[in-house]
Amino acid sequence: MSCENPSVDKDALMARRPKFDKTKQCVKCKERTGNVVIRHAVYCKSCFFPLISTRFRKSLEPSVNPTPDGPRRKALKASGSLLVGLSGGLGSTVMLDLVAKTYFGAPSVADLGEEAPPSKPKGGKEHPRNMTGKDSEIWRGVPAVCYVEVCGAFPGAEDRTERVRQVVESYATTSPPFAFDFIPLRLEDAFDLEWWKGVGELLFTPPPSSTPILALQAYLSSLPTQTAIHSATQTLVRLLLLYTAASRRASHVLLGTSLTSLSVNLISGIAQGAGFSVAEEAMEEWRGEGKSGELTPPIRIVRPLRDVGMKECAIWAWWCGLRIVGRERYLGGTQGIGSLTRNFITGLERDYPATVSTIARTCAKLTPKEGSDGVCLLCQRPAQHGVQEWKSRTSIRSYNHASFSSSGHERPPHLANATDRPQHRTEPSPSSHLTPHLCYACHTTLTSRSSRGNVKQTSDSKVVPLPLWVGASLSLVPTSEDSSGEVWATRRMGDGEMKAAIGDLLLNDS
Amino acid sequence: MSTDSNTMFLKIEFGGGLELLFSNQRSHRITIPSTVPADNNTSVTTKDAASPATRPADVTYLLHHLRDHLLKEREELFMENGTVRPGILVLINDTDWELEGEGEYLLKDGDEIVLISTLHGG
Ligand SMILES: [Zn+2]
Ligand SMILES: [Zn+2]
Fold this sequence. Notes:
The complex is a heterodimer.
Chain A: H1 10-13, E1 36-38, E2 41-43, H2 45-60, E3 81-85, H3 90-103, E4 144-149, H4 161-169, E5 181-186, H5 193-199, H6 212-221, H7 226-247, E6 250-254, H8 259-271, H9 278-282, E7 283-286, E8 299-302, H10 310-319, H11 337-351, H12 353-364, E9 374-375, E10 382-383, H13 387-394, H14 402-407, H15 440-447, H16 468-473, E11 474-478, E12 488-492, H17 502-506
Helix pairs in contact in A: 3-10, 7-15, 8-11, 8-12, 11-12
Chain B: E1 7-15, E2 27-33, E3 35-37, E4 54-56, H1 59-70, E5 79-80, E6 83-84, E7 88-92, E8 95-96, E9 112-117
Parallel strand pairs in B: 1-9
Antiparallel strand pairs in B: 1-2, 3-4, 5-6, 7-8, 7-9
The complex binds zinc ion (2 copies).
C-alpha cells in the first residue's frame, strides 16, 4: 500500500453504503419525515434537538460529581466552578449554546422545534436541575467563558476577541438573561508575568527586556517544524485555560472538541508520538501548583461533544441561528500532520460516517502498558519513564556517530550542510537535563527534524524563553557565562537534581 | 414566482463561514435554466445548437453554477471531484440533501438551498 491520500481511491477498497437505512421516516418518533441523517440514522428536526442535548449530557454529567455515583444516581453537584473554553469555532460555539440552554436557563432547545411554541417555558418538571438564576445548582459561582486569542503567533491573523465577546454577551440578552464571566486571554500570556502572577506563584527571576509577544514568537520560531508549532500552540492554549480555571477554583473545564476533531487529535497525536497520553485526549484530570505552591484540587477536562460530530454541530448552529466567529486553524500548513489528518477524517466522515466514532471509541480504550512516573513539565500530562533512553535506541540521532562513520553511510542531502547539535555544552552537570522531565511528544515537538528542512531560523539568540509554568518548576537565573546575557541556565529549586540547561534542548539546530 | 417557464428561481444561503468565499454575502437569490447541458457547462445556454445533450437542472448543476458565477475565491475550498468538498453540508428546503438524492435532486422553482461549512472546527 502506498502513502497516497487514502480518500482518492477509497471506493476501490470499500463499498459505499447508502447514506441512510431503509426509509426517510424519523427513527425516533417514527412519524415525521426525517430532516437529517446522522451515521445512517434518520431524524426529524423535532427529534434532532433532544438527541444532541442528550448526547451532550451523557458525555458530561457522569463526570460532574467528584466521585462516581453508586447504583442510585445522586443529584449533580460539582466541587467547584465551571470554565467553558471557547475558540470561536463551530464545536465550542455549539457547546456554549448547549451549556447555556441545559444548565443556565437560556431559552430551551425544545422551543426551537417546530412543535413547540416559542413562549413555552422550559421543561421544569423533566429537568429539575435546570436553573434560571445567576448560577446553577450544579456548579459553584458564576461560570466563566475563556477565549485564548492566538493571533500573536500568526502574523496577519485577525484578532477575534471582540467578536467572540459578542457571542458570549448574546446570552445576556436572551430571556431569561444569563451573564457568563468572559475572560479573554492571549497566547502570549503564557510568557507574561502579569498574567502568571494572577494564577501562579513567582519563584524565579524572569528574563529581562523581552515582551510577552516577543517571547512567544521566539519560542515558536525555535521549534523545528510547522507541525511542532501547531502542537506547541495547542499545549499553550490548554494550559492557559487550566491555570485560569485553577485560579477560579474550577472543578471542570469544558472543551468543544467534537467527535470529528477528537478523532483528528487522536490520530495526529499518535502520529506525533503522543500515544502515551491518548486516553487523556478523551478525558483527563489535572492538578496545578497553586499560588502558595500546594497542588490545586483536581480539575476535570471534559469534552462533552465527544460523541457529536461536526455535521450535527453545524446543523445545530444553523437551526439555532448561532453565529460562528471562526477560528485560526493553526494546523501547521497544508502538508502538516494536522491538516492531512483533518482532510482524511473529514472525507472519511462523509463517506463512512460510522468509522469516525469507531476511531474515537477505540482510542479511548487504549491504556499504556506501563504507568506514568511523573508529569511533563511543558504540557503537564503524565509522562513516561525513560523517554531519552528509548529515543536513543530507536532513532538516528547523529550522523557523526561512530558506527555511521565507519559504515560509510552518507548524510541525506537535506542534512548535508547541517552541523549536529553538540550533545553536551559546558553545563555544570551535563547528565542532568530538561529532557527527563518531558513527555515523548513534547520532546519530539522541541527537537524533531523535519524531512522538509526546518522552518525559518530567525533568531540569533541561543536560548529560547519557555512558558512561565515551566520556569515555575525550574528556577531560571541568568548565567554569567555569556556576556550577551542570552544564555540561560536552569536550576531546580531544592536539591538541585535538575541543574540543567533548558537552552541546550532548545538550541537552534543549525 | 418565476414568470419564465424556462428558468427557475432559487434562494441560496451560505453558513458556517462558507459565505466568505461568496463575497461574504450569506443570502443570494439566483435564476438558473430549467434545462441544462448534460456536461454541467454553465457558460452556454441550452438554446445553443452546439449542445444538444441536456437534462433537467439538478443540484450538481447548481454547484457548478455557484462555482462559475458566484464564487469569488479559492474554488478548491468549495468543490472537489464534481461535488462539494467533504465537510460542506447541503440542506434542500431544510432537509439534509442525503435524504433527497444529493446531487441528483431535481430542482424546483422556489427551492431553498443551504450550504454550510463545518471546516471552521471546534
Ligand atoms: Zn422524529
Ligand atoms: Zn509533554
